[in-house]
Design brief:
four-stranded mixed beta sheet; globular; alpha+beta
């Protein structure tokens, strides 16, 4: 099993293609946007199996499988 952890410092909805090259099973991303609130169809598709928590919709913790 491969797990990637990254503090992307925001704008993960535009940066997520870079981590896909790692072909991980689980991505733990700090300071990412809430996929449920995103305007990006590609980001919502990537995040189809996710858990997200945070007080600010722009900077939370996302776990993607």
């Amino acid at each position: 099993m491969k797990i990637i952890s990254w503090n992307c410092n925001g704008k993960f909805s535009t940066k997520f293609p870079a981590v896909l090259e790692e072909d991980a099973d689980i991505y733990v991303i700090q300071r990412c946007e809430n996929p449920s609130e995103s305007d990006s169809d590609a980001y919502r598709e990537f995040a189809s199996n996710h858990f997200w928590t945070g007080h600010n919709q722009e900077y939370g913790l996302g776990i993607f499988a």
